[in-house]
Fold:
Amino acid sequence: MVLIDGTLIATMRQTGKADRRNYSGKHHRHGLHFLALTDERGRLIWISAARPGPHP
Structure:
């Protein structure tokens, strides 16, 4: 069995247009999203590259 989970890692606010790119309205903070696959014991199998904060 494989488990998938996503999380937002908080980052510092940036200035200018880059500011909006990493803002997550769902979490009301700036950050980067990561997805991770683990086995049933919680051992990491795979982790995605960082994506901007807002959901696609």
